[in-house]
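task queued by scheduler; priority normal; single chain, no ligands, no partner chains; default sampling; output format set to structure tokens
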Amino acid sequence: MPSVTHDDAPLLADLMPWSVAPPRPGRGWPTAPDEASLKARWDALMKAEGPAREALFVPTRSRTLHSAVGQLPGGPSGTGRLARAGGPCPEPVRVLAAPFDEQWLIPDHRLIDAARPELWRVADARQIFAVETPAAPGATGPLLLASALLPLFRPGRVRPLYRRPGAAEPNLAPGLLAHLATRLGGSPEPVDLLAWTVATVRPGPAGLAVPLTADAELWARGLDLGHRLLWLLRRDGDRPRLPGGRRPYVRAPLPPRPLTVLYDRDEETLHLDEGRVAPVPPEAWDFEVSGVRVLEGWFAARMTEAEPGTLAAIRPADWPQAWTSELLELITVLALLAELGPRRAELTVTAQVTAAELRGAGVLPVPDAARRPASVLDHHEEGPEGQFALL
């Protein structure tokens, strides 16, 4: 964690003022590590009738088969009540189901207790979602994740980098970038501020704090580290690779349905029953978010048996090859992130741009409107039962 010279660092909640609680699915079966299982689950729901369909659906106070809700922004899912719905499954979309765990979701508002439509409205290829991760006592994992995918996990707040689609209207305190440009020279971009934030964010008594600097050389070093962190967190563009000799490979074929996962720290080997993956650095195996090992959580999502007869029990009969590829990349990402830990620790933030300075410059406090979602007036969204809602 970067060190600082004093404690008047501005809060993340002020620098990126608009935040949304993560979506709350309410039921697990509309999310899965593979796309085919979701379509099979949907088909099973559509074939069931009456009480059988209701039991498979898993109703809650927020959603039942008779709930009338609007269409999720950006998707073609239906809006008729599920009690009498039919037809094919809405095309699943990629989401971040847990830290570093990319899965698939059926994007149907009728299946999700609290979908947070305001997040869906701004989700596109240029959006970056910053996700707070609660700090567990003694934990060393990242306090802020970033993803191009819509994050589903709780309880931290989600802060989109942009308030509108197309990377329009950055979700930053008005005047912040202009003030930093005056103090640092150059023209920092919104993604630069996010990169700096990922590299320097730290816990504070009032929430996550972001020490800002007026030292141009330090700013450049922080940006170099932060953009590297962002690239690994988002996993976009070129695929990350470890140097030859350190790249993880499947050393013994994985069984069709592994039941146990064991890690041999001395041999740096991951055992899935008789299957073996190596080398797996201890830093990758030990990598935690909010006190939970990432790799253990990733395996649990794919290996924990669901209750028979439920939709969640519809899953691949054998371990898909795609999961092995995802596992090797995840090990690589975690190992590379762990390597950057010392660089973060060495980043001593001096010549701070303090919260008091930002208040004096009129950047803080942010206007109330900056904490609310931007108005969406340029398109229609289908409401319940096919009626259009104008926002």
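post-processing summary
- The mean pLDDT is 92.
- The first strand starts at residue 31 and ends at 32.
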